[in-house]
Amino acid sequence: MTAFTYAPAPERVRPRLRERYGLFIGGRWTAPEDDRFMETINPADETRIADVAYGSTADVDRAVRAARKGYERWSALKPADRAKYVYRIARTITERSRELAVLESLDGGKPIRESRDFDVPASAAHFFYHAGWADKLEWAIRGGASPQPIGVCGQIVPWNFPLLMAAWKMAPALACGNAVVLKPAETTPLTALALAEIIAQADLPPGVVNVVTGDGATGAALVDHAGVDKIAFTGSTEVGKRIARSTAGSGKRLTLELGGKAANVIFADAPMDQAVEGIVQGIYFNQGHVCCAGSRLLVEESVHDEVVDRLTNRIRTLRLGDPLDKNTDIGAINSRVQLDKIRELVHSGIEQGATLVQAECELPARGFFFPASFFTNVHPSHRIAREEIFGPVLSIMTFRTPDEAIEKANNTPYGLSAGVWAAEGSKNMWVAQHLRAGVVWCNTFNKFDPSSPFGGYKESGFGREGGVHGLHEYLTLA
Ligand code: NAP
Ligand code: MG
To answer: How far apart are the CA of 111 and the centre of ligand 2, in A?
Structure first.
């Protein structure tokens, strides 16, 4: 790995930044009621980027009331007219894509190559896809029923894919005729605020989309507000459980996209070059801050040493450094809190007897960084095999038979995603059918499409985002 260098950072596009961001409520930028602001920083150098409003319970209340008014207008529009607005959002994201990519990497630490080639185009694609559904919703429901929107949707997103998670939630909600109050994560509010600007540019009726920045307490105020008809949450299992408890019996609809500890299963006959790239993509993409990351590698015993050798060589070639450098593979860890969590779990792996392999690499003096790493000699009972590390750290285990692979892969409280690598299609399909995971990739990993539903089993949550299944989460037949 090469060390972090500041100059010259190749990406020179200046995003449109304000000193201070208010709340986007009722189609206008407004100051928070108690005039509290918080900083958002660049995790690659710990410098302040901008001040962002801290939304209080009173601000959430204003936003929900504005959303109710917005809902009355939005749900009364002809579906084909709603579609035009959603298309306009998609086109504007595309027009502002370079600026959005820089903003995403600046605020969250992910490599610009990823935000440019994945996050931003995937966000636009989500709006394009759902715009197409807006006037065809009766075809999304079997049995000829007439689907109706739910009402006001509170949407809470995490910091790992800030714009994309907002798009995953907002696009289907709007296409189905709902109004939205979006609460971005505390460390990555800037692309959600840029999305609010785009909503204003697209001239949506006031209140259809509201963005309230803040922290966990702001999110909890949204969850608890009596005027909210549905909560869509993506984040940790711990907070998801809390939300499930506090919405129980309230009549609110709820979808939860929570954590994961995905198995990536490599059979001895797998196409090995591709499999090693798939392992790298599975765990080091976005510094491993990925709910569906292939964080538990299950390798057939006979090829374990070969896979470990290849991976050892491969992680040496990954470049860690400035997220705005187009050559960077591993950017910054999103926050100090997350870096501490990764370090703590890595420490536990060493204490419990696993062997740590890390590429030699000089870390930048400032900012939050962690080198690409993996553990061998991992036992299924180790914390690093059970808990979500949410960092660039892979835990490698072995198996001897397909049955053992399935048993080990399913031995987790989570069930979000999994990967299988084998030469034979029939073996891939057989294993995929037996894995209890919402998404199973065969001979590939971390591939997404707006038409493909995404979501979990067990402690990874319930409900689906994307595709026809995702539309059902924003419609009612009542
Ligand atoms: P988190 O702490 O659960 O936070 C997620 C969001 O919820 C943030 O906006 C957070 O606000 C807010 N929040 C915190 N406490 C809340 C409360 N009591 N009530 C309502 N909202 C609250 O998760 P995170 O650490 O940001 O994100 C990482 C987690 O997300 C990982 O576990 C990952 O697996 C999961 N994830 C899942 C998916 C999926 O699709 N299944 C996708 C991406 C990530 P603040 O950040 O401002 O505190
Ligand atoms: Mg930030």
So the answer is: 14
